[in-house]
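Exam revision sheet. Question 4 asks you to relate a sequence to its structure. Input first:
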Amino acid sequence: MNGIIPYTLVRSGRKTAALHITQNGVLEVRAPLKMPKVDIDCFVASKEQWIRSHLEKAAVHSAARSNFKLDYGSQITLFGEVYPIVSSRSSGIHFDGASVFVPAGLDNGDIKRAVIRLYRVIAKDSFSGRTGHFAGLMDVMPTGIRITGAKTLWGSCSGKNSISYSWRLVMADENVVNYVVVHELAHIKEHNHSPRFWAAVESIFPDYKDRRRKLKLIQEKLVAEDWDE
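Answer key, structure tokens:
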């Protein structure tokens, strides 16, 4: 090996060292507070093949993000289906079930922001309805439902049983969306990922593992797309 691969060191109260490749393609080493620097360097050296492989993937994703843009004629994904963006004389954005109509004359940034606004509206309506439906089946009641711009969390459940969903989830197919809803509702029963938690999820979706795998594929897709607001 020709020298240590450059990295950013983040120390915390964790017990072991771990590697993380940021969205910008930076190697981040997360290490215990008192772990000697020489041991950290040895750890990085031992993972060189893994690191270089993932840095290459990150570079590809970064290039794809840089080239990502929405224009009239582009296609966007909504609940797993693909729809075209169409120029409209209307002053607002709307979806008619077949196309997404966006006001004419907008630049790429404005089109993306318009689509995100539409995604947020659809997310609030759809996720609220789905949450109510599955909450009834699971005999739980969230204290609130919120739509966020979270990039790495599809959903979350607070200690007070308020559920949040990322608007980005509207791009996943309905089976996956429903899995995330049930996953978060199950946290009202179990605020952990214990066997009892997964049993609650499985009681609604015996195929939850397949749905979870599909969710990871959606995450991989979005890594290469620039949906920053």
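Marking note for examiners. Residues 108-138 form the longest helix (31 residues).
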